[in-house]
Write a structure and sequence with these properties.
The complex is a heterodimer. Chain A is built from nine helices and twelve strands. Chain A is α/β, with parallel strands linked by helices. Chain A has a six-stranded mixed β-sheet with strand order 8-9-10-3-11-12, sandwiched between helices. A four-stranded antiparallel β-sheet of chain A has the order 2-1-4-5, with helices on one face. In chain B, strand 1 and strand 2 form a beta hairpin. Chain B is mainly alpha-helical. The chains are: A alpha/beta, B mainly alpha. Chains A and B meet through helix 2, strand 8, helix 3 and helix 5 of A and helix 9 and helix 10 of B. Chain A: It is an enzyme of class 7 (translocase). Chain A: This is ABC-type polar-amino-acid transporter.
Chain lengths: 278, 283
Amino acid sequence: MSEPKGGAVSEPKGGAVNVPKGGAVSVPMVSAEGVRKRYGGHEVLCGVDLRIAPGEVCCLLGPSGSGKSTFLRCVNHLETVDGGSLRVDGALVGYVQRGDRLFELRPREVAARRREIGMVFQRFNLFPHLTALQNITEAPLRVLREPAGEVRERALALLERVGLADKAAAFPAQLSGGQQQRVAIARALAMRPKLMLFDEPTSALDPELVGDVLEVMRGLAADGMTMLVVTHEMGFAREVADTVAFLDGGRVVESGSPDEVLVNPRHERTRAFLSKVL
Amino acid sequence: MDPTSVRAVPVRHYGRWAGAAVLVVIAVLFFRALLDSPNLEPATIGQYLFKDYVLHGVGVTLLLTAVAMVLGTAGAVVLAVLRLSANPVLRGGAWAFIWFFRGTPLLVQIIFWGFLGALFPRITLSVPFVGTLFDQPTSVVVSGTTAAILALSLNEMAYAAEIVRGGILSVDRGQTEAAHALGMSPALTMRRIVLPQAMRVIIPPMGNETITMLKSTALVSVIAGHDLMTVVQGVYGNNYKVIPLLVVAALWYLALVSVLSVAQFFVERRFGRGFAAPRGGLR
Protein backbone atom coordinates (compact mmCIF):
# COMPACT_ATOMS: atom_id res chain seq x y z
CA MET A 1 0.00 0.00 0.00
CA SER A 2 1.09 3.55 -0.64
CA GLU A 3 0.81 6.11 2.13
CA PRO A 4 -2.67 6.44 3.62
CA LYS A 5 -4.44 9.24 1.84
CA GLY A 6 -6.24 12.20 3.23
CA GLY A 7 -4.65 11.80 6.64
CA ALA A 8 -7.82 10.06 7.67
CA VAL A 9 -6.08 8.13 10.40
CA SER A 10 -5.51 9.82 13.70
CA GLU A 11 -4.91 8.07 16.96
CA PRO A 12 -6.77 9.43 19.94
CA LYS A 13 -4.65 9.31 23.08
CA GLY A 14 -5.11 6.02 24.83
CA GLY A 15 -7.18 4.68 21.95
CA ALA A 16 -5.35 1.38 21.90
CA VAL A 17 -5.87 0.68 25.56
CA ASN A 18 -7.85 -2.47 26.02
CA VAL A 19 -10.60 -1.80 28.48
CA PRO A 20 -11.95 -4.91 30.17
CA LYS A 21 -15.59 -5.79 29.74
CA GLY A 22 -17.81 -3.95 32.19
CA GLY A 23 -15.31 -1.09 32.42
CA ALA A 24 -16.49 2.48 32.18
CA VAL A 25 -15.34 2.87 28.55
CA SER A 26 -15.93 0.08 26.10
CA VAL A 27 -13.58 -0.11 23.12
CA PRO A 28 -15.48 -1.31 20.07
CA MET A 29 -14.31 -4.71 18.78
CA VAL A 30 -14.42 -3.37 15.23
CA SER A 31 -14.47 0.28 14.40
CA ALA A 32 -14.39 1.46 10.79
CA GLU A 33 -14.31 5.11 9.81
CA GLY A 34 -14.40 6.05 6.16
CA VAL A 35 -12.69 2.80 5.05
CA ARG A 36 -11.72 2.91 1.39
CA LYS A 37 -10.45 0.17 -0.89
CA ARG A 38 -9.70 0.37 -4.58
CA TYR A 39 -8.71 -2.28 -7.16
CA GLY A 40 -6.98 -0.46 -9.99
CA GLY A 41 -9.36 2.33 -10.95
CA HIS A 42 -12.40 0.68 -9.40
CA GLU A 43 -13.35 1.79 -5.90
CA VAL A 44 -14.89 -1.16 -4.04
CA LEU A 45 -15.24 0.51 -0.65
CA CYS A 46 -15.90 4.24 -0.64
CA GLY A 47 -16.04 5.18 2.99
CA VAL A 48 -17.44 2.39 5.16
CA ASP A 49 -18.42 3.40 8.70
CA LEU A 50 -19.25 0.61 11.11
CA ARG A 51 -18.93 -0.09 14.82
CA ILE A 52 -19.29 -3.48 16.46
CA ALA A 53 -19.29 -3.74 20.24
CA PRO A 54 -17.77 -6.74 22.05
CA GLY A 55 -20.27 -9.60 22.13
CA GLU A 56 -22.28 -8.15 19.30
CA VAL A 57 -23.41 -10.12 16.23
CA CYS A 58 -23.48 -8.00 13.10
CA CYS A 59 -24.76 -9.22 9.76
CA LEU A 60 -23.61 -7.53 6.56
CA LEU A 61 -26.19 -7.68 3.82
CA GLY A 62 -26.18 -6.30 0.33
CA PRO A 63 -26.18 -7.14 -3.36
CA SER A 64 -23.15 -8.89 -4.86
CA GLY A 65 -20.36 -6.44 -5.59
CA SER A 66 -21.48 -4.14 -2.79
CA GLY A 67 -18.15 -4.64 -0.99
CA LYS A 68 -19.35 -6.81 1.95
CA SER A 69 -16.75 -9.53 1.49
CA THR A 70 -14.00 -7.03 0.72
CA PHE A 71 -14.74 -5.17 3.94
CA LEU A 72 -14.70 -8.43 5.90
CA ARG A 73 -11.33 -9.35 4.38
CA CYS A 74 -9.97 -5.92 5.31
CA VAL A 75 -10.76 -6.60 8.97
CA ASN A 76 -8.08 -9.30 9.21
CA HIS A 77 -5.82 -7.66 6.66
CA LEU A 78 -6.28 -10.17 3.85
CA GLU A 79 -6.87 -6.94 1.90
CA THR A 80 -5.06 -3.72 2.66
CA VAL A 81 -7.06 -0.61 3.35
CA ASP A 82 -6.39 2.37 1.03
CA GLY A 83 -7.91 5.07 3.20
CA GLY A 84 -9.81 5.76 6.39
CA SER A 85 -9.20 3.98 9.64
CA LEU A 86 -10.03 0.44 10.60
CA ARG A 87 -9.42 -0.81 14.13
CA VAL A 88 -9.91 -4.16 15.79
CA ASP A 89 -10.09 -3.97 19.57
CA GLY A 90 -8.56 -0.51 19.45
CA ALA A 91 -5.54 -1.45 17.33
CA LEU A 92 -5.15 -0.27 13.74
CA VAL A 93 -5.38 -3.12 11.23
CA GLY A 94 -2.10 -3.63 9.39
CA TYR A 95 -0.32 -0.54 10.76
CA VAL A 96 1.15 0.87 13.86
CA GLN A 97 1.27 4.56 14.66
CA ARG A 98 4.40 6.09 16.18
CA GLY A 99 4.13 9.83 16.67
CA ASP A 100 2.15 11.05 13.70
CA ARG A 101 3.53 8.51 11.25
CA LEU A 102 2.10 5.16 10.22
CA PHE A 103 4.33 2.14 9.81
CA GLU A 104 3.31 -1.00 7.95
CA LEU A 105 3.38 -4.03 10.20
CA ARG A 106 5.87 -6.79 9.38
CA PRO A 107 4.34 -10.08 8.17
CA ARG A 108 5.05 -11.62 11.58
CA GLU A 109 3.19 -8.81 13.36
CA VAL A 110 0.26 -9.06 10.96
CA ALA A 111 0.16 -12.80 11.67
CA ALA A 112 0.16 -12.12 15.42
CA ARG A 113 -2.88 -9.85 15.09
CA ARG A 114 -4.70 -12.42 12.97
CA ARG A 115 -4.38 -15.07 15.68
CA GLU A 116 -7.10 -13.27 17.60
CA ILE A 117 -9.50 -13.12 14.65
CA GLY A 118 -11.15 -16.29 13.37
CA MET A 119 -12.29 -16.48 9.78
CA VAL A 120 -14.67 -18.83 8.01
CA PHE A 121 -14.67 -18.85 4.21
CA GLN A 122 -17.36 -19.44 1.66
CA ARG A 123 -15.34 -22.29 0.10
CA PHE A 124 -14.34 -23.74 3.53
CA ASN A 125 -10.63 -23.81 2.59
CA LEU A 126 -9.92 -26.78 4.84
CA PHE A 127 -6.41 -28.16 4.38
CA PRO A 128 -7.07 -31.24 2.20
CA HIS A 129 -3.86 -33.05 3.19
CA LEU A 130 -4.78 -33.01 6.90
CA THR A 131 -7.54 -34.85 8.74
CA ALA A 132 -10.37 -32.94 10.39
CA LEU A 133 -8.57 -33.17 13.73
CA GLN A 134 -5.23 -32.08 12.25
CA ASN A 135 -6.94 -29.14 10.53
CA ILE A 136 -8.04 -27.96 13.97
CA THR A 137 -4.80 -28.66 15.84
CA GLU A 138 -2.38 -27.30 13.22
CA ALA A 139 -2.48 -23.61 14.19
CA PRO A 140 -2.61 -24.03 18.00
CA LEU A 141 0.36 -26.42 17.75
CA ARG A 142 2.49 -24.52 15.25
CA VAL A 143 1.48 -20.92 15.89
CA LEU A 144 0.66 -20.81 19.60
CA ARG A 145 3.02 -23.73 20.37
CA GLU A 146 0.64 -25.12 22.94
CA PRO A 147 1.19 -28.63 24.39
CA ALA A 148 -0.03 -31.38 22.06
CA GLY A 149 -2.23 -33.19 24.60
CA GLU A 150 -4.09 -30.05 25.57
CA VAL A 151 -4.62 -28.99 21.95
CA ARG A 152 -5.88 -32.43 21.00
CA GLU A 153 -8.38 -32.45 23.85
CA ARG A 154 -9.64 -28.99 22.94
CA ALA A 155 -9.93 -29.97 19.27
CA LEU A 156 -11.94 -33.09 20.12
CA ALA A 157 -14.22 -31.00 22.32
CA LEU A 158 -14.71 -28.55 19.46
CA LEU A 159 -15.52 -31.37 17.04
CA GLU A 160 -18.06 -32.59 19.57
CA ARG A 161 -19.50 -29.11 19.78
CA VAL A 162 -20.02 -28.87 16.02
CA GLY A 163 -21.51 -32.36 16.03
CA LEU A 164 -18.66 -34.17 14.29
CA ALA A 165 -17.04 -36.12 17.12
CA ASP A 166 -16.93 -39.24 14.92
CA LYS A 167 -15.17 -37.50 12.02
CA ALA A 168 -11.83 -36.68 13.68
CA ALA A 169 -9.87 -39.00 11.38
CA ALA A 170 -11.72 -38.10 8.18
CA PHE A 171 -10.03 -36.12 5.42
CA PRO A 172 -11.95 -33.10 4.09
CA ALA A 173 -12.66 -34.89 0.79
CA GLN A 174 -14.59 -37.52 2.79
CA LEU A 175 -16.88 -34.92 4.38
CA SER A 176 -19.96 -33.20 2.98
CA GLY A 177 -19.88 -29.45 2.44
CA GLY A 178 -21.82 -28.79 5.63
CA GLN A 179 -19.48 -31.01 7.64
CA GLN A 180 -16.44 -29.31 6.12
CA GLN A 181 -17.78 -25.89 7.04
CA ARG A 182 -18.40 -27.01 10.63
CA VAL A 183 -14.82 -28.31 10.85
CA ALA A 184 -13.69 -24.93 9.47
CA ILE A 185 -15.60 -23.17 12.26
CA ALA A 186 -14.01 -25.49 14.85
CA ARG A 187 -10.59 -24.77 13.31
CA ALA A 188 -11.09 -21.03 13.74
CA LEU A 189 -12.40 -21.44 17.30
CA ALA A 190 -9.39 -23.53 18.32
CA MET A 191 -7.34 -20.31 18.31
CA ARG A 192 -9.71 -18.84 20.94
CA PRO A 193 -10.44 -15.74 18.84
CA LYS A 194 -12.08 -12.63 20.25
CA LEU A 195 -13.76 -11.92 16.93
CA MET A 196 -15.15 -14.29 14.29
CA LEU A 197 -15.55 -13.33 10.65
CA PHE A 198 -17.90 -15.32 8.42
CA ASP A 199 -17.70 -14.79 4.66
CA GLU A 200 -20.94 -16.19 3.22
CA PRO A 201 -20.49 -19.40 5.21
CA THR A 202 -23.54 -21.16 3.76
CA SER A 203 -23.50 -19.91 0.16
CA ALA A 204 -21.62 -22.92 -1.21
CA LEU A 205 -23.79 -25.48 0.58
CA ASP A 206 -26.68 -27.62 -0.60
CA PRO A 207 -29.88 -26.22 0.94
CA GLU A 208 -30.41 -29.18 3.28
CA LEU A 209 -26.92 -28.71 4.79
CA VAL A 210 -27.31 -25.02 5.61
CA GLY A 211 -29.27 -25.61 8.81
CA ASP A 212 -26.49 -27.49 10.66
CA VAL A 213 -23.97 -24.72 9.99
CA LEU A 214 -26.38 -21.96 11.05
CA GLU A 215 -27.15 -23.97 14.20
CA VAL A 216 -23.45 -23.95 15.16
CA MET A 217 -23.28 -20.20 14.51
CA ARG A 218 -26.40 -19.61 16.59
CA GLY A 219 -24.74 -21.44 19.48
CA LEU A 220 -21.63 -19.28 19.13
CA ALA A 221 -23.71 -16.12 19.20
CA ALA A 222 -25.51 -17.35 22.32
CA ASP A 223 -22.12 -17.85 23.99
CA GLY A 224 -21.34 -14.17 23.48
CA MET A 225 -18.87 -14.41 20.60
CA THR A 226 -18.40 -11.19 18.66
CA MET A 227 -19.34 -12.03 15.10
CA LEU A 228 -19.26 -10.21 11.77
CA VAL A 229 -21.25 -12.23 9.24
CA VAL A 230 -21.62 -11.63 5.53
CA THR A 231 -24.70 -13.61 4.60
CA HIS A 232 -27.75 -13.96 2.42
CA GLU A 233 -29.62 -15.86 5.12
CA MET A 234 -32.27 -13.30 6.04
CA GLY A 235 -33.84 -15.60 8.61
CA PHE A 236 -30.54 -15.97 10.42
CA ALA A 237 -29.92 -12.21 10.31
CA ARG A 238 -33.35 -11.42 11.73
CA GLU A 239 -33.17 -14.02 14.46
CA VAL A 240 -29.54 -13.89 15.60
CA ALA A 241 -28.07 -10.51 14.65
CA ASP A 242 -27.94 -7.63 17.11
CA THR A 243 -27.31 -5.24 14.25
CA VAL A 244 -27.71 -5.50 10.53
CA ALA A 245 -25.79 -3.30 8.11
CA PHE A 246 -26.94 -2.96 4.52
CA LEU A 247 -24.12 -2.21 2.07
CA ASP A 248 -24.51 -0.95 -1.47
CA GLY A 249 -21.97 0.64 -3.78
CA GLY A 250 -19.17 0.38 -1.20
CA ARG A 251 -21.05 2.25 1.56
CA VAL A 252 -23.17 1.34 4.54
CA VAL A 253 -26.56 2.55 3.33
CA GLU A 254 -28.29 1.88 6.60
CA SER A 255 -27.70 -0.05 9.76
CA GLY A 256 -29.60 -0.78 12.93
CA SER A 257 -31.50 -3.56 14.64
CA PRO A 258 -32.83 -6.33 12.37
CA ASP A 259 -36.34 -4.98 12.87
CA GLU A 260 -35.36 -1.51 11.75
CA VAL A 261 -33.41 -2.58 8.69
CA LEU A 262 -35.21 -5.74 7.58
CA VAL A 263 -38.80 -4.97 8.58
CA ASN A 264 -39.00 -1.20 8.23
CA PRO A 265 -36.18 -0.17 5.92
CA ARG A 266 -35.91 3.57 5.52
CA HIS A 267 -33.78 3.61 2.44
CA GLU A 268 -35.11 2.97 -1.05
CA ARG A 269 -32.15 0.76 -2.04
CA THR A 270 -32.59 -1.44 1.04
CA ARG A 271 -36.25 -1.88 0.18
CA ALA A 272 -35.43 -2.78 -3.43
CA PHE A 273 -32.87 -5.36 -2.30
CA LEU A 274 -35.13 -6.92 0.33
CA SER A 275 -38.04 -7.18 -2.11
CA LYS A 276 -35.76 -9.26 -4.37
CA VAL A 277 -34.38 -11.67 -1.76
CA LEU A 278 -37.37 -12.16 0.56
CA MET B 1 -33.31 -63.05 -27.82
CA ASP B 2 -32.32 -64.24 -24.34
CA PRO B 3 -32.96 -61.27 -22.02
CA THR B 4 -30.35 -62.26 -19.40
CA SER B 5 -27.24 -62.71 -21.52
CA VAL B 6 -26.42 -61.36 -24.95
CA ARG B 7 -24.89 -63.81 -27.44
CA ALA B 8 -23.37 -62.03 -30.40
CA VAL B 9 -20.52 -62.67 -32.80
CA PRO B 10 -17.69 -60.31 -31.74
CA VAL B 11 -16.21 -57.92 -34.30
CA ARG B 12 -13.19 -59.43 -36.07
CA HIS B 13 -10.26 -57.01 -35.75
CA TYR B 14 -8.25 -58.27 -38.76
CA GLY B 15 -6.04 -55.17 -38.85
CA ARG B 16 -4.98 -55.59 -35.22
CA TRP B 17 -4.24 -59.26 -35.68
CA ALA B 18 -2.08 -58.57 -38.73
CA GLY B 19 -0.18 -55.87 -36.81
CA ALA B 20 0.40 -58.20 -33.86
CA ALA B 21 1.69 -60.95 -36.18
CA VAL B 22 4.17 -58.57 -37.83
CA LEU B 23 5.42 -57.48 -34.41
CA VAL B 24 5.97 -61.04 -33.24
CA VAL B 25 7.92 -61.90 -36.41
CA ILE B 26 10.15 -58.84 -36.03
CA ALA B 27 10.79 -59.64 -32.37
CA VAL B 28 11.71 -63.25 -33.12
CA LEU B 29 14.07 -62.21 -35.91
CA PHE B 30 15.73 -59.60 -33.71
CA PHE B 31 16.33 -61.85 -30.72
CA ARG B 32 17.57 -64.69 -32.96
CA ALA B 33 20.06 -62.32 -34.54
CA LEU B 34 21.09 -61.15 -31.10
CA LEU B 35 21.65 -64.64 -29.71
CA ASP B 36 23.36 -65.86 -32.89
CA SER B 37 25.87 -63.04 -32.78
CA PRO B 38 29.25 -64.27 -31.50
CA ASN B 39 30.00 -60.77 -30.14
CA LEU B 40 27.27 -60.62 -27.51
CA GLU B 41 29.22 -63.06 -25.31
CA PRO B 42 26.71 -63.85 -22.53
CA ALA B 43 29.52 -65.50 -20.61
CA THR B 44 31.51 -62.26 -20.57
CA ILE B 45 28.44 -60.35 -19.41
CA GLY B 46 28.00 -62.78 -16.53
CA GLN B 47 31.68 -62.55 -15.71
CA TYR B 48 31.64 -58.76 -15.30
CA LEU B 49 28.12 -58.15 -14.02
CA PHE B 50 29.03 -58.61 -10.34
CA LYS B 51 32.75 -57.75 -10.43
CA ASP B 52 33.69 -55.72 -7.37
CA TYR B 53 34.81 -52.65 -9.36
CA VAL B 54 31.57 -52.75 -11.39
CA LEU B 55 29.60 -52.88 -8.13
CA HIS B 56 31.68 -49.98 -6.84
CA GLY B 57 30.78 -48.03 -10.00
CA VAL B 58 27.10 -48.80 -9.36
CA GLY B 59 27.57 -47.46 -5.84
CA VAL B 60 29.12 -44.22 -7.12
CA THR B 61 26.31 -43.82 -9.67
CA LEU B 62 23.72 -44.23 -6.91
CA LEU B 63 25.60 -41.83 -4.64
CA LEU B 64 25.89 -39.19 -7.39
CA THR B 65 22.19 -39.55 -8.16
CA ALA B 66 21.16 -39.28 -4.52
CA VAL B 67 23.40 -36.34 -3.65
CA ALA B 68 22.58 -34.42 -6.84
CA MET B 69 18.83 -34.95 -6.34
CA VAL B 70 18.90 -33.92 -2.68
CA LEU B 71 20.99 -30.80 -3.34
CA GLY B 72 19.08 -30.09 -6.54
CA THR B 73 15.67 -30.34 -4.89
CA ALA B 74 16.67 -28.23 -1.89
CA GLY B 75 18.08 -25.57 -4.20
CA ALA B 76 15.00 -25.85 -6.41
CA VAL B 77 12.65 -24.99 -3.55
CA VAL B 78 14.74 -21.91 -2.76
CA LEU B 79 14.86 -20.90 -6.45
CA ALA B 80 11.11 -21.45 -6.87
CA VAL B 81 10.33 -19.27 -3.84
CA LEU B 82 12.71 -16.59 -5.18
CA ARG B 83 11.02 -16.78 -8.58
CA LEU B 84 7.72 -16.00 -6.81
CA SER B 85 9.22 -13.20 -4.71
CA ALA B 86 7.81 -9.68 -4.78
CA ASN B 87 11.35 -8.31 -5.09
CA PRO B 88 12.29 -7.91 -8.79
CA VAL B 89 16.03 -8.44 -8.18
CA LEU B 90 15.49 -11.77 -6.38
CA ARG B 91 12.95 -12.79 -9.02
CA GLY B 92 15.27 -11.77 -11.87
CA GLY B 93 18.29 -13.48 -10.31
CA ALA B 94 16.43 -16.77 -9.97
CA TRP B 95 15.15 -16.42 -13.53
CA ALA B 96 18.70 -15.81 -14.86
CA PHE B 97 20.08 -18.83 -12.98
CA ILE B 98 17.41 -21.08 -14.44
CA TRP B 99 17.87 -19.54 -17.88
CA PHE B 100 21.61 -20.26 -17.86
CA PHE B 101 21.62 -23.78 -16.43
CA ARG B 102 18.68 -24.94 -18.53
CA GLY B 103 20.05 -23.25 -21.60
CA THR B 104 23.43 -24.99 -21.79
CA PRO B 105 23.99 -28.72 -22.38
CA LEU B 106 24.65 -30.78 -19.26
CA LEU B 107 27.71 -32.28 -20.96
CA VAL B 108 29.17 -28.78 -21.40
CA GLN B 109 28.49 -27.97 -17.75
CA ILE B 110 30.14 -31.19 -16.55
CA ILE B 111 33.28 -30.56 -18.59
CA PHE B 112 33.29 -26.93 -17.44
CA TRP B 113 33.30 -27.90 -13.75
CA GLY B 114 35.86 -30.61 -14.48
CA PHE B 115 38.19 -28.01 -15.97
CA LEU B 116 37.37 -25.22 -13.54
CA GLY B 117 41.09 -24.92 -12.80
CA ALA B 118 41.67 -23.67 -16.33
CA LEU B 119 39.48 -20.65 -15.55
CA PHE B 120 40.41 -20.04 -11.90
CA PRO B 121 43.75 -21.75 -11.11
CA ARG B 122 43.43 -21.08 -7.37
CA ILE B 123 40.45 -20.66 -5.06
CA THR B 124 41.10 -17.91 -2.56
CA LEU B 125 38.93 -16.46 0.15
CA SER B 126 40.28 -13.34 1.78
CA VAL B 127 38.54 -10.85 4.04
CA PRO B 128 39.74 -7.22 4.18
CA PHE B 129 41.75 -6.44 7.38
CA VAL B 130 41.62 -10.10 8.39
CA GLY B 131 43.73 -11.66 5.69
CA THR B 132 43.52 -14.77 3.57
CA LEU B 133 41.35 -17.45 5.14
CA PHE B 134 41.56 -19.98 2.38
CA ASP B 135 43.91 -20.48 -0.55
CA GLN B 136 44.19 -23.77 -2.44
CA PRO B 137 44.73 -24.88 -6.04
CA THR B 138 41.39 -25.47 -7.73
CA SER B 139 42.30 -29.01 -8.74
CA VAL B 140 42.68 -29.92 -5.07
CA VAL B 141 39.37 -28.39 -3.97
CA VAL B 142 37.26 -29.53 -6.90
CA SER B 143 38.05 -33.19 -7.51
CA GLY B 144 36.38 -35.22 -10.25
CA THR B 145 33.57 -36.32 -7.92
CA THR B 146 33.04 -32.79 -6.58
CA ALA B 147 32.89 -31.41 -10.11
CA ALA B 148 30.37 -34.11 -11.05
CA ILE B 149 28.18 -33.32 -8.05
CA LEU B 150 28.39 -29.57 -8.71
CA ALA B 151 27.44 -29.97 -12.36
CA LEU B 152 24.61 -32.43 -11.78
CA SER B 153 23.02 -30.64 -8.82
CA LEU B 154 23.22 -27.13 -10.31
CA ASN B 155 21.64 -28.39 -13.51
CA GLU B 156 18.98 -30.27 -11.57
CA MET B 157 18.18 -27.17 -9.49
CA ALA B 158 17.29 -25.23 -12.62
CA TYR B 159 14.93 -27.89 -13.94
CA ALA B 160 13.39 -28.82 -10.61
CA ALA B 161 12.83 -25.15 -9.70
CA GLU B 162 10.28 -24.86 -12.48
CA ILE B 163 8.59 -28.09 -11.37
CA VAL B 164 8.41 -26.85 -7.77
CA ARG B 165 7.14 -23.44 -8.89
CA GLY B 166 4.41 -25.12 -10.91
CA GLY B 167 3.49 -27.19 -7.85
CA ILE B 168 3.30 -24.13 -5.61
CA LEU B 169 1.14 -22.28 -8.14
CA SER B 170 -1.19 -25.29 -8.36
CA VAL B 171 -2.23 -24.89 -4.71
CA ASP B 172 -5.47 -22.90 -4.37
CA ARG B 173 -5.05 -19.35 -3.07
CA GLY B 174 -7.74 -20.04 -0.51
CA GLN B 175 -5.31 -22.38 1.26
CA THR B 176 -2.81 -19.57 1.81
CA GLU B 177 -5.59 -17.25 2.94
CA ALA B 178 -6.94 -19.79 5.39
CA ALA B 179 -3.46 -20.34 6.83
CA HIS B 180 -2.85 -16.58 7.09
CA ALA B 181 -6.25 -16.10 8.74
CA LEU B 182 -5.15 -18.61 11.39
CA GLY B 183 -2.14 -16.42 12.15
CA MET B 184 0.43 -18.57 10.37
CA SER B 185 3.48 -16.67 9.11
CA PRO B 186 4.30 -16.76 5.38
CA ALA B 187 7.20 -19.18 6.00
CA LEU B 188 5.09 -21.51 8.14
CA THR B 189 2.28 -21.38 5.57
CA MET B 190 4.70 -22.37 2.82
CA ARG B 191 6.23 -25.21 4.84
CA ARG B 192 3.15 -26.72 6.45
CA ILE B 193 0.30 -25.93 4.06
CA VAL B 194 1.44 -25.06 0.53
CA LEU B 195 4.47 -27.32 -0.05
CA PRO B 196 2.82 -30.54 1.28
CA GLN B 197 -0.03 -29.98 -1.17
CA ALA B 198 2.33 -28.94 -3.97
CA MET B 199 4.17 -32.26 -3.43
CA ARG B 200 1.28 -34.10 -5.02
CA VAL B 201 1.92 -32.21 -8.26
CA ILE B 202 5.71 -32.15 -7.84
CA ILE B 203 6.36 -35.85 -7.14
CA PRO B 204 5.51 -37.44 -10.52
CA PRO B 205 7.79 -35.17 -12.60
CA MET B 206 10.47 -35.36 -9.88
CA GLY B 207 10.36 -39.16 -10.17
CA ASN B 208 11.03 -38.63 -13.85
CA GLU B 209 13.88 -36.26 -12.98
CA THR B 210 15.44 -38.86 -10.66
CA ILE B 211 15.33 -41.49 -13.38
CA THR B 212 16.82 -39.04 -15.89
CA MET B 213 19.47 -38.09 -13.33
CA LEU B 214 20.45 -41.71 -12.75
CA LYS B 215 21.20 -42.07 -16.45
CA SER B 216 22.72 -38.58 -16.80
CA THR B 217 25.40 -39.57 -14.29
CA ALA B 218 26.88 -41.63 -17.15
CA LEU B 219 27.98 -38.30 -18.66
CA VAL B 220 30.45 -37.70 -15.83
CA SER B 221 32.62 -40.46 -17.34
CA VAL B 222 34.08 -37.62 -19.44
CA ILE B 223 35.74 -36.18 -16.32
CA ALA B 224 36.60 -39.54 -14.73
CA GLY B 225 33.73 -39.53 -12.25
CA HIS B 226 34.36 -43.17 -11.12
CA ASP B 227 30.70 -44.01 -11.82
CA LEU B 228 29.38 -47.19 -13.48
CA MET B 229 29.92 -45.85 -17.00
CA THR B 230 33.48 -44.73 -16.25
CA VAL B 231 34.30 -48.20 -14.90
CA VAL B 232 32.76 -49.98 -17.88
CA GLN B 233 34.59 -47.72 -20.33
CA GLY B 234 37.83 -48.40 -18.50
CA VAL B 235 37.32 -52.16 -18.87
CA TYR B 236 36.42 -52.21 -22.56
CA GLY B 237 39.22 -49.74 -23.23
CA ASN B 238 41.55 -52.55 -22.14
CA ASN B 239 39.89 -55.71 -23.44
CA TYR B 240 37.89 -54.29 -26.39
CA LYS B 241 34.76 -56.24 -25.35
CA VAL B 242 32.64 -53.15 -25.94
CA ILE B 243 29.23 -54.71 -26.48
CA PRO B 244 29.20 -57.14 -23.52
CA LEU B 245 30.29 -54.39 -21.14
CA LEU B 246 27.72 -51.93 -22.47
CA VAL B 247 25.13 -54.64 -21.82
CA VAL B 248 26.45 -54.95 -18.26
CA ALA B 249 25.97 -51.21 -17.77
CA ALA B 250 22.53 -51.24 -19.42
CA LEU B 251 21.35 -54.13 -17.20
CA TRP B 252 22.40 -52.22 -14.08
CA TYR B 253 20.75 -48.98 -15.19
CA LEU B 254 17.55 -50.88 -16.04
CA ALA B 255 17.53 -52.61 -12.66
CA LEU B 256 18.08 -49.35 -10.75
CA VAL B 257 15.40 -47.51 -12.74
CA SER B 258 12.95 -50.35 -12.00
CA VAL B 259 13.62 -50.01 -8.27
CA LEU B 260 13.13 -46.22 -8.50
CA SER B 261 9.81 -46.68 -10.30
CA VAL B 262 8.52 -48.84 -7.45
CA ALA B 263 9.72 -46.28 -4.89
CA GLN B 264 7.96 -43.52 -6.82
CA PHE B 265 4.66 -45.42 -6.58
CA PHE B 266 4.84 -45.49 -2.79
CA VAL B 267 5.93 -41.86 -2.45
CA GLU B 268 3.08 -40.73 -4.71
CA ARG B 269 0.60 -42.66 -2.62
CA ARG B 270 1.91 -41.03 0.55
CA PHE B 271 1.53 -37.48 -0.75
CA GLY B 272 -1.80 -38.19 -2.42
CA ARG B 273 -3.41 -38.63 1.01
CA GLY B 274 -6.66 -36.77 1.35
CA PHE B 275 -6.95 -36.24 -2.41
CA ALA B 276 -7.77 -39.57 -3.97
CA ALA B 277 -10.71 -40.84 -1.91
CA PRO B 278 -9.38 -43.80 0.10
CA ARG B 279 -11.17 -47.13 0.01
CA GLY B 280 -14.66 -46.77 1.39
CA GLY B 281 -14.41 -43.01 1.18
CA LEU B 282 -17.47 -40.90 0.52
CA ARG B 283 -18.01 -38.83 -2.61
